[in-house]
Amino acid sequence: MNYQPSDYLPILIQLGLAVGFIVTTMLVTHSIGPKRNSKLKDDPFECGIEAKGDARTPISIKYFLVAILFVLFDVEVIFMYPWAVNFIKLGTTGFVEMILFMGLLLAGFFYIIRKGVLEWEK
What we know:
Structural class: mainly alpha
Oligomer: single chain
Strand order of the largest sheet: 1-2
Shape: flat
Number of strands: 2
Radius of gyration: 25 Å
Helix content: 55-70%
Largest sheet: 2 strands, antiparallel
């Protein structure tokens, strides 16, 4: 197929309308919304707990490692959906490639388990 620039016009129109709606909504809500400020209202608030201390308190690296590993393995699972949809078309080659992919994924998972990354207390 030979796509012309005019074929992308509906997409650009939809993108322009979406951005225009967002900008218009933000401007209107800020201009007509209430503007009541007070010490109590401007206090930081999270989960019903009053803020105490400094926001820059050190946090254990374990939280970040678990979060990064979750995102990493979650993204790996996303690659399996297109493979599952096209399983029949890919044939034996696609199956072997997925076995290799899963093998590397499991090797990485067993590596982080052996290193003790998921252990909270040592």
